[in-house]
Amino acid sequence: MRVTTLVIIILVIALAGTITFGVFYLTKEDPIEKVRAIVPPVVEENNPPEFRFAFYGDAEKNVLLEKPLDAAVAGGKIYVTDSRNHRILVFDYNGKLVNAFGEDYLKTPYGVAVSGSRVYVSDAAASRIVIFNRDGKFEGYFEPKKEGKQFHPRDKYAIAPVGDLQVKGGKIYVSLIKSDRVLVFDLKGNLQLEIGEAGVGAGEFRAPHGLAVDDEGNIYVADSGNNRIQVFGPDGRYLKTLGGEEGQMGKLTTVRGVALDQRGNIYAVMNLTNKVVVFGKDGKALFQFGSPGAEHGQLGLPNGIFIDSNGRIYVVEMGNHRVSVFGY
């Protein structure tokens, strides 16, 4: 009887291990990465992240980044908009090039976002959003509509020229650089919300670029021409501004990219001063990192930024033609 019970226990343990392995294999998720993502790093005042590594492409294959603008990370892959070469380059989690796609469909890719099985790319020169699957197969063009009708190219709602984009919670968020607005669509292309107009007041923009959306649906906009980050509620209502005063650590200039970490801290990329300013969830400036140059840890005209679930920070440098990775 005891032997039979022992055999049953051993079989149950073996079966549980097999099922666990099968789940991770089928979902293609790294169990270690998944565990780490549960506890994001603590970000403390005056404790900036350290430089980890940078990647440029593959010199042996002559596939190199030229004026990259944005990045997104999903499924252990890093997707980067290679704007001058009209394509998306895909890297593994260590920065090794694994794929390139989009040359036949993209002119000047700006923003990139991954949602589900799809990769969404905003094309600044073509004024449209192009959709691929994660392997790079073309799936179609996003078709924006208002009240069921497609936009005319000269319609004020047309995405021309399009800047950054984010896809979250079944919605697509798009910044319009020259028409000084942010538009929100559902995944079928129906216009849900319009935010902003040209100006310097609260809720107004001058050349909005980067976007971020938190878990509550609040929208963070890099208002580049006004040197600030503006925050809006899910309904588009203006909430607050981040940017600081002259001489303060949190003073922003030519802010291009914005991202949020798992704890709600806000990262703002300053393009011309080659720095990243980090604010706490309460809006208090915590620290800056980066300096002008091409050495490790320095930045060259940074534009986009992405923070993954493990707290890794990816800064996309259009001037140094690379992506620099930082961590705590």
From TrEMBL:
<feature type="repeat" description="NHL">
    <location>
        <begin position="192"/>
        <end position="235"/>
    </location>
</feature>
<keyword id="KW-0812">Transmembrane</keyword>
<dbReference type="InterPro" id="IPR001258">
    <property type="entry name" value="NHL_repeat"/>
</dbReference>
<feature type="transmembrane region" description="Helical">
    <location>
        <begin position="6"/>
        <end position="26"/>
    </location>
</feature>
<feature type="repeat" description="NHL">
    <location>
        <begin position="286"/>
        <end position="328"/>
    </location>
</feature>
<keyword id="KW-0677">Repeat</keyword>
<protein>
    <submittedName>
        <fullName>NHL repeat containing protein</fullName>
    </submittedName>
</protein>
<keyword id="KW-1133">Transmembrane helix</keyword>
<dbReference type="Pfam" id="PF01436">
    <property type="entry name" value="NHL"/>
</dbReference>
<dbReference type="InterPro" id="IPR050952">
    <property type="entry name" value="TRIM-NHL_E3_ligases"/>
</dbReference>
<keyword id="KW-0472">Membrane</keyword>
<dbReference type="InterPro" id="IPR011042">
    <property type="entry name" value="6-blade_b-propeller_TolB-like"/>
</dbReference>
<feature type="repeat" description="NHL">
    <location>
        <begin position="71"/>
        <end position="94"/>
    </location>
</feature>
<dbReference type="GO" id="GO:0008270">
    <property type="term" value="F:zinc ion binding"/>
</dbReference>
